[in-house]
Write a structure and sequence with these properties.
MetI-like fold, cell membrane, 314 residues, ABC transporter permease, 0% strand
């Protein structure tokens, strides 16, 4: 019996263990702390989050749309960025506008990422005709000119409604992430740890949620950041051309009203520069954070850095 057991064990195939993410939170923190660009992005995003959640910490003005001040005042101690042609505090509008901008970015980015995961992973896992049809759907949305389509949909669907803007951003922003996730899932479909799960009799729900998706967390997070950046820029563009709600306060609507009042021509440059700069900084924060997720998803980047440091020390 002993010799039979040894021989039987010798012929058993070696099953590749499923990749595990140990201490994902600590790994993310180490990656952000060890990467100057990623750390700068995290700090910028944290500042915007605090301003969105607690705007009263940055300005005493409760109603940024209130026309309670003198018109077209220059920057001063009372009004850090001056006032608009309508008597509104520009700094207060900038701070309060952070909330709507981040809400659009987070909700649209999250929903687009969920749609990307559902379609991209389903196409790779199902294969065959389902893969062909879903891949065709992805390709169609990839080649459609996005911004003209967004303008048409928002204009005919009451674009001033924030829910409509978010829905349009989700519909037009999921395809690129789905293509990436499909390619990654295809590379995992025939891995040994998935074959062993099928042999054990695990269903598709378990395999997808507990075997495939945990190995793709960093890629999903990177896709979310990309979708959020797309949402920020596109929503600001829609609001700038007048497809946002005129009564809402966001950086895009600030640019719209500044352009309508010819702010640059009348010496009110901060009315234009401030929201434009915040849009750029928020976009930079999302882009810089991708460095941390690249480091987690591509471990080869870390040894290269260590080697460079060691060479510099020698």
């Amino acid at each position: 019996m002993t010799s039979f057991s040894a021989a039987d064990a010798a012929i058993q195939p070696k099953v590749e263990p499923r990749p595990r993410r140990k201490g994902a939170g600590m790994a993310l923190w180490r990656a952000i702390r060890g990467n100057g660009k990623a750390f700068a992005g995290a700090v910028l995003l944290l500042i915007f989050l605090i301003a969105a959640i607690l705007p009263n910490l940055f300005t005493p003005v409760k109603n940024p749309n209130a026309r309670a001040f003198a018109l077209s005042l220059p920057p001063s101690g009372a009004h850090l960025l001056g006032t608009t042609s309508y008597g509104q505090d520009i700094w207060a509008q900038l701070v309060w506008g952070t909330r709507q901008t981040l809400v659009v970015a987070v909700i649209a980015g999250a929903l687009a990422s969920v749609l990307s995961v559902l379609i991209g992973v389903a196409a790779a896992y199902l294969g065959g005709l389902a893969d062909d049809l879903l891949s065709l759907l992805i390709d169609v949305f990839l080649v459609i000119p996005a911004f003209p389509l967004i303008i048409v949909i928002a204009a005919y669907a009451n674009g001033g409604n924030l829910a409509v803007i978010v829905g349009v951003l989700v519909i037009t922003g999921w395809s690129y992430g789905a293509r990436q996730l499909r390619a990654q899932a295809l590379s995992l479909r025939r891995r040994d740890f998935l074959e062993s799960a099928r042999v054990r009799g695990e269903g598709w729900f378990y395999i997808v949620n507990f075997e495939i998706l945990p190995t793709m967390i960093s890629l999903i997070a990177a896709n979310f950041l990309g979708a959020a950046l797309y949402a920020v820029l596109t929503a600001a563009g829609l609001q700038f051309i007048g497809l946002g709600s005129p009564s809402s306060v966001s950086w895009g609507t600030m640019l719209h009203w500044a352009q309508s009042a010819e702010a640059l021509q009348t010496g009110q440059s901060w009315w234009v520069v401030a929201p434009g700069l915040c849009i750029a900084l928020l976009g930079a924060a999302f882009a810089l954070l991708n460095y941390a997720f690249d480091e987690i998803s591509n471990p080869a980047l870390r040894p290269v850095r260590r080697q460079r440091r060691n060479r510099g020390g020698n």
